[in-house]
Amino acid sequence: MPVDPNPAGLAAEPSATAREQTRRRIIDVAIDLLERGGRDAITTRAVADAAGLQPPALYRLFGDKEGLLDAVAEHGFTRFLAAKHIDPDPQDPIKELRVGWDIAVEFGLANPALYALMYGEPTRSTVFRIGLELLMQRIRRLAVAGLLRVEEDLAAQIIHASARGAVLTWLSLPEPQRNPALLLALREAMITAVTTQEPAVQEQGPAGAARALRAALPDQNALSHAEQRLLTEWLDRLSA
């Protein structure tokens, strides 16, 4: 006589694959509700009903509604990064910055509610941090090439603010008033604020930058005499 493997009639624990499939289905349903009705449309009851589940299933997978929203935002960042084509060694870092800005704005215009959720408040998403690291790599390449006009963190803030402002302004306009020239003007204003068309240092690498800074030292008064001597010694070493 065969032995009943589940004599108590307990529900079997779902496999990791089934759990991930359920999690993905819930996120897809939440995104659909978000795009059709905004953030307020995402309630645990509405998501559970649309996914054909009971609310406790959502709590087991996401903890609470905020956990579900975090998962939706992270999925959005994953989609956004998948749309990017990162050139590890771009020949023109300013062109690369333009292309990256265009991709960010196009994603926001195509996914307005998801974009608002992703960028409407600080996020703890690991994928968001990866995206920020990629942006900082772009900015660092500009700095190494002598093309960065402002400090690196400020450059990142300007780029983010201009892209978000472009998306939100475009979406707030009546459709007949949406002129593509607006996006072009905002992008070029960002480029002008962040970059300089002529490299500040013609010779790339630390030696050229050190020589340029060494030549400018006599004209500054921010450092004490001792600090200036020490910095001069360091720059002389880097220039060699």
TrEMBL record:
Domain of life: Bacteria
SUPFAM superfamilies for the chain: Homeodomain-like
Boundaries of every HTH tetR-type domain copy: 20-80
DNA-binding region: 43-62
Keyword flag Transcription regulation: yes
Keywords of the record: DNA-binding, Transcription, Transcription regulation
Pfam family, one: TetR_N
Entry-linked PROSITE patterns: HTH_TETR_2
Family annotation (PANTHER family): HTH-TYPE TRANSCRIPTIONAL REGULATOR BETI, HTH-TYPE TRANSCRIPTIONAL REGULATOR RUTR
The protein's name in its UniProt record: TetR/AcrR family transcriptional regulator
Organism: Nonomuraea helvata
Lineage summary: Bacteria, Bacillati, Actinomycetota, Actinomycetes, Streptosporangiales
